Amino acid sequence: MTLRLFTTRVRVLWESLSTSYWFIPLLMMSISVALCYACLSVIERAFLPDVLRPLIPLVTQESVQQLLSTVAGAMITVTSIAFSMTLVSLTLASNQFGPRLIRNFMQDRNTQMVLGILVSTFLFCLISLHHLSSINSNQDAVSMLAGATVFLALIDCVTIIYFIHHVSRSIQADQVIANCVQHFESNINSLLSVPESNASFRAIAEQWAAPQGDFLVSVKAVQNGYVQTINYSSFLNQSATEVAGSELHVRSGDHVLCGEALFTVHCRQPASEADFTTLRQAVVLGANRTPIQDPEFAISQLVEIALRALSPGINDPHTAITCVDKLTAICVQVASREFPAENLIHTSSEVWLKRRTFTFAGVVDKAYSQVRQSANDQIAVLIHLLKSLAKLQQSCAAIEQKTISTHAHSIDEQIATLTISASDKKSIEEAMLPFKSND
């Protein structure tokens, strides 16, 4: 496996680790073990600065044992409470905001750190109790254990208070929506990666990526799954004597069936699918869809919140309107960026690559189509959609305004089938004026 493919695999692995509740707590537990070892055999009380020595008084072994037992029992109780609150927030996220939003809650570093601190304190006390009888004559080690235990207990008290505040704040709809937008904005460079920014690659017109007389080799998927990330450089850095170019049939976020074609290689000499087993690893498949190279992932999360809010069971149009505002802000930000080119070529070897990429029209469709369809009886939401599309149109180039105008006219046709009041009709006519003037 080449370094580029290894880097791609590591990126997917890190994405998986960042959404787990065990990785950061396990690291912090390792730190607590190291701290316990330092208190037992490395740190001497006499070597501490004079300022810190009064904070770590000399204590008896019985006192330390009682302290460790008390803190350990309290920490395991508090940890169970923290886990219960975490599960409640995950259940609420799944029911009210949608299962797709669970990933955001599990990726929350604050929750991972809180769980890690609490479990690490319990582990520190447990190991200290286990070694306490063996350090009866080492008064410094006993005192250091007592001081470290009190210090960790104070941190845990502050941590649990913060955690209660954090959980109560994180389950609010506005905060959930804001977190989705923040995650998109912080990762927009990787979501809309532009390989042609590399000096070795450049964008080309489609007709230059269509050589004739090549030997075609179709490489198929060996498993079902979602395309999590693609290493485009691997396709462009192939040997020019063997390969003329490649056509990628999938992109990040697509679901692929076993046996479905991933890409086609245009070879200069006869070759088989087995010759490109390593290249197949450049297309990473997994059980879950990830936002690594998928700008529509965060948009889908906001759309899911809006659809839940518009459902008869929840019926919360205000949350849906908030989602529309955030979706419009994302589309405005995306409109000002350069989208990846569909056709690339290596500047020195002239190995080319044709691929499916994300487009502004696709982002707008993902953002507005389902919300518009689900808001059929929510006049306020439909009017707000028209106003948001008008704002988006002002921020876009003329070539992109046709896509926006199409959505506006679709909303107008949808409203025409409804029975509404005269005042609502007037509001809709005013909201449609920016689009009728461009017809």
TrEMBL record:
Positions of transmembrane segments: 21-47, 67-92, 113-132, 144-164
Stretches assigned to coiled coil: none
Highest taxon above the source species: Bacteria
InterPro entries per UniProt: DUF2254_membrane (IPR018723), PYNP-like_C_sf (IPR036566)
Matching SUPFAM superfamilies: Pyrimidine nucleoside phosphorylase C-terminal domain
Keywords: Membrane, Transferase, Transmembrane, Transmembrane helix
Name of protein: DUF2254 domain-containing protein
Record organism: Alteromonas oceani
